[in-house]
Amino acid sequence: MTKKLPANAARAKKIKLFLMDVDGVLTDGKMYYIPGKGTEMVEFKSFHSLDGIGLRLLNQFGIVTGVITGRESPGTEERAKSLGMGYAYQGFLSKLEPLRQILADTGLRPENVAYMGDDWTDIPVLKKAGFACAPANAQEEVKAAAHLVTAKEGGMGAVREVCDFILRSQGHWGTVMDYVETAHWPAIKKDPIKIVRESGGRGK
Q1: Engineered SS bond to 59: which of 84, 121, 170, 195, CB 3.0-4.6 Å?
Q2: Which long-range contacts (CB under 8 A, 24 or more apart) does 136-143 make?
Q3: Minimal CA–CA distance to 109: which of 80, 134, 129, 123?
């Protein structure tokens, strides 16, 4: 799962913002199309509930989450809203500018950012992030740029692995287990989400 466990734990302790790609990370990368109105085709994506719990827990402990993706999808926007994400940048194949904007908005430094991606378009952000992560199904060049490569593939709980690693590294695991034992799950904090769409965003 990790290249250097102690070093990665030190990186994860600093994380206050977890950003990620969508296709191949939050999903398995497959896209489904069904007929909509008239000649319109509607795109569907599949998200894993394991990732949802992990992201909800990060939200609970004050770690902001968000997506930067090359495609625009109503499903992505709805998923981001339901998980209380702070940012949803869609249609951006070049992802450094969204990162710059988010850092300016939050006042955070790159060392406070975890990023997870699976393809070449993610590499520039991975190289900037303080904690760079990739799912097991990522391109080899992406894995080489990552500090942590998960055992699971995108859309199959890979994001959850990163969430759990951050929670453990920051000393929150005992509280998480208390939630489990008492069946008390705090309500998700749904602050206003910042949604940015780049025109013509039909890329990855």
Answers
A1: 84
A2: 137/24, 137/28, 137/29, 138/24, 142/117, 142/118
A3: 129
Does residue 204 fall inside a structural domain? no
Number of domains in the chain: 1
What's the rounded Cα separation, in Å, for the pair 32 and 138?
20
> Which pLDDT tens digit goes with each residue over 99-154?
999 999 999 999 999 999 999 999 999 999 999 999 999 999 999 999 999 999 99
Per the domain annotation, does 201 fall within a domain? Answer: no
Is 12 contained in some domain? Answer: yes
pTM for the model stands at: 0.90
How many residues are recorded in the chain? 204
| Residue 24 CA neighbour count, 13 Å, CB half | 21
Amino acid at 105: D
Contact 133/115 with Cβ under 8 angstroms?
yes
Q: Partners of 139 in the beta sheet?
A: none
Tokens encoding 84:
């209380």
Decide if 115 contacts 94 (C-beta within 8 A): no
- Only one residue has tokens 């904007």, namely 101
Contact 110, 130 (CB under 8 A): yes
Does 202 map to a domain? no
Give the CATH number for residue 90.
3.40.50.1000
Q: Is 107 exposed, middle or buried (0-12, 13-18, 19+ CB in 10 A)?
A: exposed
